[in-house]
Amino acid sequence: MSKIVSILLFFIASSALAAEKCDYKVQFDDTIPANVSSIKLGKAKSYTKFEVKPDYFETTIQDCAFKNNKYYILSSSITHPANTLAQSILVVSIFDKSGSLNEHKFINKKWTCEIDDGFYKKNNKLEVLYSCADKSENLKYNKYAVEVK
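-> structure tokens emitted (149 positions)
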């Protein structure tokens, strides 16, 4: 009897963990050419294409996390294929526990930004550390940190 209870508890615990798991992959598509990102949230059986806006040249997922019954997807999007014209936009996309998109939060502080590191927890808060430049031709980057809510 105790073995049956143990097995049931194992399946309940693993199904609860599966609901909190997020996964992503980024693949280069040379027909575009660009990076194409896909996500799989919770108990989803397959990956789905992830875009912040369809008119952006590409969106690359940088990290994902689960906190407070929400999935957070950290991504960077490039608005134009030519580097001299491209603006790199950092976005946190928030999905509810069922996998429905709630909102996209744009976190850029300047013209073009890049992720220094993915999500990290600091004092039980989810944060992102990134760097930004004022203009596309400016090579001076300033560092920023933002709490994700």
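The mean pLDDT is 84.
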